[in-house]
UniProtKB/TrEMBL annotation:
InterPro entries: MlaB-like_STAS, STAS_dom, STAS_dom_sf. Pfam families: STAS_2. PROSITE patterns: STAS. This is STAS domain-containing protein. SUPFAM superfamilies: SpoIIaa-like. It comes from the Bacteria. Residues 1-11 have a biased composition (Basic and acidic residues). Residues 35-122 form the STAS domain. It comes from Rhodosalinus halophilus.
Length: 122
């Protein structure tokens, strides 16, 4: 069988949406964009993510990891590096909702604390 019409299509592109206006305080600057991670965060996803983050530098982001099923160390390193870059730039970058797979991977590599930092980046 070549393909199953019922199979969930794989999403590797990163989806961006605005945070709902009701959740945003206009005094804190521009509203953050929702940066949705794909289900498979592997080498090809890392390349796409690096390119997407390069273009989004300076944009407030809330990372949505609810769809993540598989994650590579390289992708986690990219997310951590982006978090530090956004912090240094004084721009909001936070991890929003995350799947059990993403949470476990961050925990195993002791990276949860990177995204749970108390610095206010707005």
């Amino acid at each position: 069988m070549v393909g199953d019409a019922r199979a969930k299509p794989e999403r590797t592109a990163y989806m961006l949406t605005n945070e709902p206006e009701a959740l945003h305080d206009p005094a804190s600057g521009p509203p953050p964009r929702r940066f949705a991670l794909p289900a498979r965060m592997d080498l090809s996803a890392a390349e796409e993510m690096a390119e997407a983050l390069e273009h989004l530098r300076g944009t407030p982001l809330v990372v949505d990891g609810t769809d993540v099923e598989q994650v590579s160390t390289l992708c986690l390193q990219l997310l951590a590096a982006a978090r530090f870059q956004w912090r240094d730039d004084g721009v909001r970058f936070e991890l929003g909702e995350s799947s059990p797979a993403l949470h476990e991977a961050l925990e195993l590599l002791d990276l949860l604390k990177v995204f749970q930092a108390t610095e206010v980046l707005e």
